């Protein structure tokens, strides 16, 4: 770590990123200079405006501007420097102390760099230092001001919906996301304290990515590029807006009074820790910034297990048993998965269903069905393990069906409530994991299932909890946030008790892919989508949010598929975690061989996936695009998957700039039926030809010799 104390400030950082903090004459602390140096070069961004690092809004001291932005808080403009330290820890950190002496509010900003990336994590804690209670309405996670022209900034943000996750879009900040004012008016408003322009992205409820993705990118013309994560397991927002005097700020926060029904009463001496946020920088373009953020995410995980043996998973739900498993129905799938080389066989929903009226509103006990498994579920799990695969089970731990016996056995306080009434959503009640009865029930459940032989769990979540939980005199948003944090603590304790067990996070597919949740699991589900044409853009775009070794990528081979469609289905999973489903028991011998070869090809590189960074050789995919491509860059290889979904164009050029000047050996990972490619070493471009659609190519490029002349 680099720490340098100076007369009017201090510098902190690592070899890739240095932050220069300035202490103004009145004690306000600002981030004055950001210096980035990476493999693409170096760049400095300065900002001398009074952009507070922390924003705090209370009932009695709100914003100085009626625009409702993350910034502009009265307390934020009054938090003066008290001191800073760099405590010894596994993750080098800077702790900055500030306070508002008049309003008796103290705040601590903790910045950490857990790895060597040009990135840091920010966490803010607010303390009531007075003798009267303080009612918080919002606390920022991170605010960074940049001395750049808003007309020189390109912003990337993503919408997300069930079955249509990670739909990225690119816009100019101005004109585009912010209004373009006439030159004279624009110049006048630059210095106006009432300036209120801002573009914001948000999601509310426990489906943290049910509307948008808490990752964003800003690319400044000529550099740098900045990527960020709001690490919130419930409601969140980020925004970009104008700074009075010129410049652009990026602000992030978790739930607040308007977005997320959040407020919190702090008694004297009490503190609140806001959700954290991370920010990464690159001297080059947006893909370099995402590469830095990917490295930072890896270093930040609470899951410390090595991902080298990333298992190939078969799940019996989508386009297969669809929630109707039994001992008899599972047998041909188990046998076929073993033949194909699958490592984990996960039995999805329905294994507990003995109810003639269906299981949706009766779940909660998680007891195996005797009708479906006459020899016992343990026997089926043992059969899976005897064939060399790890048995897995689907569980939705946070809900209790309204018809479940547990709905009347657990105490009322163990459930989400609003205004004294238990919250019901889609025939389910929602457990509150801050209550010991809820935790005790689930601890006993998971321990029992592990003792039966389960070594893998897919934890799903199919409600939204948008109403929140105001029990125990909490605001609805605070109750929801406390539950979400308690749930992740419970996940960590499972891994401590059962270190061999693998945990997959799912929420109607990718509806809870926030960075805070992802870092507690070994795997993150990408989608519930089962159409391969739509799975491809979802999976390739998902690499913006999740490191490849954690992102489950579906493939659904079908007996009616020709070779091109089979390749299309199998190619996507080569860039993340291989997740197989579909009616594999019905595949023809030639199709089975293609699946087995695809799994073997994945296993050849999965040890390298954990050190690779994603890239997009034709840019991020549009959801309806005819051509989509993604890849992984590793020091030993570059793997590219390119998909033709339709259209008349049979050729596509892929930009692979890091191999420019090289003459790599190029091999096809999957049988290619005569599809071709050619390499231009000068331009660093690969041209591929796919004569029909849908079809796909997966190519490995390995290079040792550099072209000269």
Automatic annotation (TrEMBL):
It comes from Microbacterium candidum. It comes from the Bacteria. This is Alpha-galactosidase. Keywords: Glycosidase, Hydrolase.
